[in-house]
Write a structure and sequence with these properties.
TIM Barrel, alpha/beta, 8 helices, binds iron/sulfur cluster, single chain, about 325 residues
Length: about 325
């Protein structure tokens, strides 16, 4: 299963830009979501700005201008978009004949409890599902998400179906003060879900927010974010009790990762992210495509990178 370790810290000079060789395109289908996580970076109430026509033009432009290796579907919650399957088909057609070898869906999983819908997702071009899960205790998990979410058994069943189709499932989990913030709690979580997925990714809740978010979100995360040094200590304590497989330093200049085997389960540990380590006028570590049709190298749906592209033709290099 490919993961963050495959996004090498290598760049190529491309026209006026410095572009990641393993370029990811984050495609935000919709700003809407069926959950209500208090730490969400995407709850921006910008639904009214969604523009399917502009979104489609931006998809075509992204593949016309850039060599995109991986596409990640995001939101909000991508699957609550009423046009989800149509957009997925459009995107799949745009990928034809390109170098893109991964199409990943990131989801809270609520809509995948509908087995008919899950079947359509599994039968699609999507080759990996990243499922957000916040706690091994179902009641706590439901409380964090603000609604009923996939149970452990449902996740295990989805994992089997995806693997049978040659696809993979990863659990994405945020760690913050009071939620999975000790070795014991992390081990309990990993043990509870060992074997129900191909990998578990642990990410510290970030203190700062992105995505043009609003002040209350910043306050929430500021109160709960664990400092980078403490996260590093927590990860090292956890790794010391299990098996370290590999490390990756400063991927694309700003993120460290470790991969460990814990109770037979692959676990990816993300260290705190050092932001603002790239030149926003020149560097493209990832591209983001927003529901309003903005294509950007930032978590902002107003700064369109196409304003800085040559007037016509392709990018050299
Ligand atoms: S499930 Fe994801 S997009 Fe939805 S509210 Fe929670 S964090 Fe935000």
């Amino acid at each position: 299963m490919k993961n963050e370790f495959d996004q090498r810290a290598e760049w190529k000079e491309t026209g006026p830009f410095r572009v990641a060789k393993e370029l990811f395109l984050d495609v935000i289908f919709t700003f809407a979501c069926d959950c209500a996580c208090p730490f969400c970076i995407a709850r921006t109430k910008n639904h009214a700005q969604e523009d399917p026509g502009a979104w489609e033009r931006a998809v075509l432009d992204a593949f016309r201008w850039f060599d995109i290796r991986s596409v990640i579907l995001l939101g909000g919650e991508a699957t609550v978009d009423p046009h989800f399957l149509d957009k997925l088909r459009f995107l799949t057609r745009a990928m034809e004949g390109k170098n893109t070898d991964r199409l990943i869906l990131t989801t809270n999983g609520c809509t995948l409890r509908d087995t008919a819908f899950a079947g359509q997702v599994i039968a699609s071009r999507i080759d990996s599902v990243n499922l957000s899960r916040m706690h091994h205790d179902q009641a706590a998990n439901d409380r964090i998400f603000g609604r009923g979410t996939m149970t452990r058994e449902e996740i295990a069943a989805l994992h089997r179906q995806l693997n049978n189709a040659g696809k993979t499932l990863r659990l994405n989990v945020n760690v913050w003060r009071g939620n999975l913030d000790s070795v014991q709690e992390l081990e309990d979580f990993i043990q509870a879900f060992a074997g129900t997925c191909d990998a578990i990714k642990l990410t510290p809740l970030m203190e700062t927010t992105m995505f043009d978010t609003v002040e209350p979100v910043t306050r929430y995360t500021r109160e709960r974010a664990i400092p980078e040094k403490q996260i590093a200590e927590l990860w090292e304590k956890l790794i010391a009790r299990h098996t370290l497989r590999r490390r990756a330093s400063r991927v694309l200049g700003f993120v460290d990762y470790a991969e460990a085997e814990i109770f037979g389960q692959t676990v990816i540990l993300k260290y705190a992210q050092v932001e603002d380590k790239y030149d926003r006028d020149r560097d493209i570590p990832t591209l983001k495509l927003y529901p309003n049709g903005c294509l950007s190298n930032e978590w902002s749906f107003t700064k369109d990178i196409r304003t800085r592209l040559p007037a016509q033709g392709g990018l050299p290099g």
